[in-house]
Amino acid sequence: MAAEFYLGADIGGTGVKYIITDDQGGIFHQGEVPTDPHSAKRTLGRLAMEVAERISPPSDSDEATFFRLAAVGLACAGIINPASGHLGRSPNLPGWEDTNLKRIIANEFQDKPSVVANDVNAALFGEFSFGAGRGCRNLVMIALGTGVGGGIMLDGALVVGTHNGAAEIGHMVLDPSGPTCTCGGVGCLEAWAGSVAILKQARLLAKVELKETALAQLVLEKGEHLSTRDLSLLAEQGDAASLALFAEVGHRLGHAVGNLVNILDPDRVIIGGGVAQAGDLILGSCRALVPAMVLAEEAKDIPIVSAELGPMSAAVGAACLARQEQAGG
Ligand SMILES: [Zn+2]
Questions:
Q1: From ligand 1's centre to the CA of 91, what distance in Å?
Q2: What is the CATH number of the domain that holds 226?
Q3: How many Å lie between the centroid of ligand 1 and the Cα of residue 289?
Q4: What is the whole-number distance in angstroms between the Cα of residue 327 and the centre of ligand 1?
Q5: 60, 65, 71, 230: which has the fewest C-beta neighbours closer than 10 Å?
Q6: Residue 184 C-alpha to ligand 1 middle, in angstroms?
């Protein structure tokens, strides 16, 4: 009998990262195809062609193209109804809003069963299966990227809520008189801890308070290409202004984590996303704040850990979700 494969794909604003695993979760192949921001159908059609090439049966076989593919898992930023496959509001892909992803997958992948999930939920499921959440049942994940996403797992199941809007941790309001958020609200975690907010703050500091400093020089030198990675490299060299900037991010993150631990009492909290590569520059001040906020004595030393699976985490998680779905939940 031929090996059964599972496809996990993470739809980003510019590219689709995908992974093909065997039925034990072992990686058979991974790659990326471009995202067409205006068409889910064209994007998934292209993905289907590439996957078909990778797993196609020998040319003398009369099996159907996708005979070895057992199920498809798809992760996408936005409000997703996992039951119907409907994608509602999606910040990265406004051209895909109000489409039914399950229906498109069925059309492009010869009616293979599928599961669709919010990207941070998928990343959390990946960390739960193979990464920083192994062996845990109750988990919170906060993904610090361009914006800030969240995922919650209770007793081994992802929490999506009544209207599929649960775990929007990035829009937890920390200070009603804080900075304006991309969502239109004020003082959300994302308004401090997303890369857009961090870069904005760095530019503001360079302009207003810290002329003639290393931070100001870096901002000038990098211009539009300034990244949080540039800032973290400067901080690692001991630059006080950038150290303080990341410490502030960690402090705000700590408030969110403290609130979440008091509400959910998870086994651990996983911090992922590109900004989290700053590691202890952020996690240091986060970990310093949390114990004082947490009420339950045994929960005060809750592990706050970095994600382990990196940029492929949502694709890995989507493949794991597909495998679980196929196994009957
Ligand atoms: Zn917000």
A1: 12
A2: 3.30.420.40
A3: 22
A4: 37
A5: 60
A6: 6
Residue 253 CA to ligand 1 centre (angstroms): 14
Neighbours of 89 (CB within 10 A): 13
| 147 and 203 in a common domain | yes
Q: Given this model, what pLDDT does residue 25 score?
A: 84
Query: Helices 101-108 and 40-55 meet at what angle, rounded to 10?
Result: 40
Q: What's the gap in Å between 139 CA and the centre of ligand 1?
A: 22
For residues 160 and 290, membership in a common domain is answered with yes
Domain tally for the chain?
Answer: 2
- Claim to verify: residue 81 and residue 196 sit in the same structural domain: no
Intervals of the chain under pLDDT 50: 1
Could you read off the pLDDT of 254-263 as tens digits, one per residue? 999 999 999 9
Residue written as token pair 């493949």: 319
212 and 318: one domain? no
- Show the domain range for 15: 5-125+312-326
DSSP 273: S
Ligand 1 centroid distance, CA of 148 (Å): 9
Q: CA 180 to CA 199: how far, in whole Å?
A: 14
Residue 192's contacts (CB-CB under 8 Å, 6 or more residues apart) are: 174, 178, 179, 198, 201, 248, 249, 252, 253
Cβ atoms of 326 and 70 within 8 Å: the answer is yes
pTM greater than 0.70 = yes
The per-residue pLDDT for 23 is: 86
Question: What does 224-269 look like in DSSP terms, one character per residue?
Answer: GG--HHHHHHHHHTT-HHHHHHHHHHHHHHHHHHHHHHHHH--SEE
148 shares its domain with 267: yes
Q: How far is the CA of 290 from the centre of ligand 1 (A)?
A: 22
Does 274 share its domain with 141?
yes
Verify that 121 and 18 share a domain, yes or no. yes
pLDDT tens digit sequence for 239-277: 999 999 999 999 999 999 999 999 999 999 999 999 999
Let me know whether 85 and 198 are in one domain: no
Distance 180 CA to ligand 1 centre (A): 8
- Going from the Cα of 105 to the center of ligand 1, the distance in angstroms, rounded, reads 31
